[in-house]
Each structure stands twice: as C-alpha cells, then as structure tokens.
Amino acid sequence: MRFLLVRFVAASALATGAMMPIAPSAHAATAPDLTCDPSQPGPCTDTAHFSDVDELNAPASAGAACPDWVSTDFARFVGTGNGIEHITVNKAQDAWFTTTFTGTMTVTAYLHGTVDSDGNVTSVSDPDPNVSPFTGKVTDWFGIEFNRQTSVVHSTFHFAGTNAQGESFRVRDISHSSWAKGEDPNGPPTKSFEKFACF
User: Fold this and answer.
1) Is the dihedral angle over the CA atoms 99, 60, 67, 55 positive or is it negative?
2) What is the pTM of this model?
3) ∠ at Cα 38 (177, 188), nearest 5°?
4) How far apart are CA 133 and CA 157, in angstroms?
5) Disulfide check for 34: which of 14, 46, 137, 157 has CB 3.0–4.6 Å away?
6) Could you tell me the pLDDT band of residue 198, with boundaries at 50, 70 and 90?
C-alpha cells in the first residue's frame, strides 16, 4: 500500500525513464517542483518545503488487523504539517531523493473511485456512510536512489487517528524494493518486501 508522496517518483526519478513502477496512489501534493532532476546533466541539488498534502489511494491489500474497509474502499488523505523534499544528482547522473512529511491528517473512506490507464486514482465519490473520517498524526518518509549498479526505493508510513465516535485507526506501512546491476529497472525488483498492518 502506498499512501503519500509517490508523485515525487514521477516528478524526479521517473524523468530518466530508468526507474521502476511503484503502485500509484498520488493525487496531488502541494510541494513545489524541484529545479534539479535526473533528466538534466548533473551535478545539481535542490530542497523544497511544503505544508499541505491531498492524496487519493485505491483499496489496499488486506493488512494484519485492518478493518474491512481498508481493502474495499478508496481513501483520501488530506493533511497539513511540515514537509521537505531533497534531491541530489552527481556528475555521473547518480541520484538520491528523499521526502519527509509529518503533521495532522484526515483519512476519509469512499465507496467509489476513478482510476486512469496508468493506475492512478484520479477521483473519489460517495463517502462510505459506515466509516467516519479519522483525524490524527501522520509521519511519512520516502527515499529513492539509483546509480549504474543498483536502484533502491524504500518508504515508511505511520498514521494514528480517531473518528467522531472515538474509534481509533492506526496503520503502518514499511516497504523496500531494489534492482541489481543489469536488471531492467522497469521490471520486477531483485528484492522486495512490504509490511502493512493496522494495530
């Protein structure tokens, strides 16, 4: 399950056409565009700050202890807080990109969503009447690195919130994918895992 900030992969690393597909989920994040990206000759480095996030996600794979709606409903994540993204590209066109966001977020479940031909959720409709929105604390970190030898994508996400009825919802997602030298970075990774659970 990918929650936040996947758009940064498209905005930076995918500009080279050499990065792997990641389960799309991003709708919009209001981070400014970085002027440095792997499609331009290095070296360059850039940092940007942002405060708002508005993301759409498809139903997730069933995670341990997760309520049923997590794997059946679309979700919208709207948050405000402190976000920072940073990219460095060296002369060899090796690149490192990270983004971190922490703040307050509201998660709303929707019965229906529209998905484009690339698998991106473009809209949601009909809030699930059986699931009240959850508001709480979110911390999200995402990193991607690639060079001539390897490509690596890893992320962590943690949300803990409550709804108007006092019910709690906590979710954690940790994922990692890597590709070895000579492998097609658009193909399946050499190593990959995802640990997604509610608690």
Assistant:
1) positive
2) 0.81
3) 25
4) 18
5) 46
6) very high
